[in-house]
Amino acid sequence: MKARGVSHIAICVANLEKSLEFYRDILGLTVKMHTTQNMENRPGAESEEMYDHPRKSRTVANVWFDDPVHAEPFLVLTSHPGEQVGGIPIKLDQKGISHISFGVDNVKKFAEELVAKGVKLAG
Q1: Is pLDDT at 22 greater than 80 in this prediction?
Q2: Mean pLDDT of the chain
Q3: Is residue 8 pLDDT above 80, yes or no?
Q4: Bridge partners of 74?
Q5: pLDDT tens for residues 77-93?
Q6: Partners of 79 in the β-ladder
Q7: Do 93 and 61 contact (CB within 8 A), yes or no?
Q8: Are 77 and 100 in contact (CB under 8 A)?
Q9: If we measure between CA atoms, which residue out of 16, 28, 18, 17 comes closest to residue 110?
Q10: Does domain 8-85 correspond to CATH entry 3.90.950.20?
Q11: Model confidence, pTM
Q12: What would the DSSP string read from start to end of the chain?
């Protein structure tokens, strides 16, 4: 059996509401699910292979592109309210997903729109 594509990409964020402001309000993705889940007795919640620290709860938001042809992969944004999120953002030469690239019609114009909306560009 072969994989047929990427279903979703999960990203743990320090501030879910601020991340939603970016993905929803600036990039125009649609939030299709936004909920807080209890982590107690959840399969894998105590697993050292899955979590650096035991977690009491997590808030999850699934954000999707509106284009039905290019809807997947969708993004799963998670945070742990009231708990410290471990780690620091990684750089391009470190292990892990270093960035996600979005297709746009005009890169220069899109970058100008992002800056006008207060987004700080990396390079």
Answers
A1: yes
A2: 84
A3: yes
A4: 8
A5: 988 888 777 777 777 77
A6: 59
A7: no
A8: no
A9: 28
A10: no
A11: 0.78
A12: ----S--EEEEE-S-HHHHHIIIIIIT--EEEEEEEEE-TT-TTTT-TTT-SS--SEEEEEEEE-S-STT--SEEEEEE-TTSPPPS-PPPTTSSS--------S-HHHHHHHHHHTTPPP--
Partners of residue 64 on adjacent β-strands: 30
pLDDT(44) > 70: no
Q: At 123, is the pLDDT very low, low, confident or very high (cuts 50, 70, 90)?
A: low
Is 52 exposed, middle or buried (CB count within 10 Å of its CB: 0-12, 13-18, 19+)? exposed
Max Cα-Cα span within the chain: 48
- Phi first, then psi, for residue 8 (nearest 5°) are -155, 165
33 vs 54, more confident: 33
Q: In whole angstroms, how far apart are CA 63 and each of 5, 28, 74, 93?
A: 18, 10, 6, 27
Q: Which two tokens stand for residue 99?
A: 């960035």
